[in-house]
Design brief:
single chain; three-stranded mixed sheet; alpha/beta; six-stranded parallel sheet
Length: about 300
């Protein structure tokens, strides 16, 4: 397929590379051109304008927030004005439910397809084509996108025909991950202050009732006091908690734990950790307990 790809960050770059490896013809655009040039050596073409990425079968956006997506899609020379009829916009960014609904309406009016397909997985999972893709949209559009999902992920879960449902699912999932990080941080603080070895404590968790990947991956990061580079930034996690709370507010759903985590993420950003991996929530718990921790 002929694919346009916009957004070459920690996730977008390996995703675009996997599309190239699978034989798709990919033209890429990134605000920082050097990131696009790195992919040119792997077989990608470089677009000088957003419009140049919109000539093929599909456009994939993998951007940081609502404002970035709006700029790409709704600008006068953006994707909405440039995509051909029957082309599909695949939004793989974590965006608000409200923006996803607006995108669906705008693309439908223009005769274009729209699929929301945010992902679960860290950059290393993206590099290994092991993402979990949460997709929602018209059946025919999702079927057309399936070869692309296959190239980027290990499993695609189709939520339904309403694209915004995929965004609700993604935001809710990120809320649950953040809840695990908060809980692990508090638990490790208690364990450390009690003189218990962190690795043995982690083994007791993951070897019994808490064997899920989120506990194994982030538990190891926290137990070893790692500060990962290139992961999911605390500032973006704060953005997602705000979006989750906005979605909950729209449906009159109280989420007091999400509000607590939002405040703790805000604390971390205020302390200069906005660019740190969101596992840094555990450092906030350690500091509150008076423990010595690594400086980010």
């Amino acid at each position: 397929m002929d694919i346009g790809f916009v957004g070459l960050g920690n996730m977008g770059t390996p995703m675009a590379l996997n599309l190239i490896k699978s034989g798709h013809r990919v033209i890429v655009y990134n605000r920082t051109r050097s990131k696009a040039e790195a992919l040119a050596a792997k077989g990608a073409r470089i677009a000088d304008r957003i419009a140049d990425t919109c000539r093929g079968d599909a456009l994939i956006t993998m951007l940081s927030d609502d404002a970035a997506v709006e700029g790409v899609i709704f600008a006068s020379d953006g994707a909405l004005a440039s995509l051909g009829r029957d082309a599909v916009h695949i939004s793989m960014s974590t965006i608000s439910v409200a923006l996803s609904e607006r995108l669906a309406a705008a693309h439908a009016k223009a005769g274009q397809g729209y699929v929301a397909a945010p992902v679960f997985g860290r950059p290393e999972a993206a590099a290994a084509a092991k993402l979990f893709i949460i997709a929602a949209g018209a059946d025919a559009a999702i079927a057309r996108c399936s070869p692309l999902f296959y190239a980027m992920g290990q499993r695609t879960i189709v939520i339904g025909e309403n694209p915004a449902d995929a965004n609700v699912t993604k935001l809710t999932g990120n809320f649950l991950i953040a809840s695990v990080l908060e809980s692990l941080g508090e638990a490790f603080a208690l364990v450390r202050k009690s003189g218990i070895d962190s690795r043995r404590f982690l083994d007791s968790l993951t070897g019994t009732m808490f064997s899920a990947p989120v506990y194994r991956t982030y538990g190891s990061i926290i137990a070893e006091e790692k500060i990962p580079s290139g992961g999911f930034k605390m500032s973006l996690a704060l953005k997602d908690m705000r979006l989750a709370l906005a979605a909950a507010d729209a449906k009159t759903v109280p989420m007091p734990i999400a509000s607590l985590i939002r405040d703790h993420l805000l604390e971390g950003v205020a302390q200069g950790e906005g660019d740190s991996d969101w596992s840094g929530l555990a450092r906030l718990s350690a500091r509150s307990a008076g423990l010595l921790t690594l400086t980010p």
